[in-house]
Amino acid sequence: MTVTWATTIVGLLGTLSGIAALVGVLVNRKKLRADAADVITDTALTLVEPLQKRVRQLEDRVEELEQEKRRSAAREHELEQELADKRAELVRLKRLINDLTVSRDDLIDLAKSDTTT
Predict the structure, then answer these.
(1) How many folded domains does the chain comprise?
(2) 13, part of any domain
């Protein structure tokens, strides 16, 4: 074997090992991507469950507040109706008092007419 052949064989072996290394990197790259995807998926699932639980809690709280709002609105309507009824009663009583009120002069005239009779 001559030096040229030896150099060619060494160069060929170096090239083959370089190609093998490149193939190894490409194969591992796909595996690394798959592993990274698995980690991302696991992390997302880990985060989603507590968020779903919190969303359910908030939806329950919203429902409670909506029910409380409906009860408050109903009570407000009842109180407004009661106030309107009380105001109407007050107006009626004021009219009754005005109808029963007699002036001083009317009383004097009434007294004079009783004494003359």
Answers:
(1) 1
(2) no
pLDDT digits (tens, 9 = 90+) for 21-45: 767 766 666 677 777 788 888 888 8
Structure token pair of residue 47: 């985060």
Query: How far apart are the C-alpha atoms of 75 and 81, rounded to whole Å?
Result: 10
* Whole-number Å distance between alpha carbons of 79 and 76: 5
Contacts of 3 (CB under 8 A, 6+ apart): none
Instruction: State the residue range of the domain holding 43.
Output: 32-116
Tell me the pTM.
0.48
Q: Give whole-number Cα distances, 99 to 6, 10, 96, 107, in Å.
A: 135, 129, 5, 14
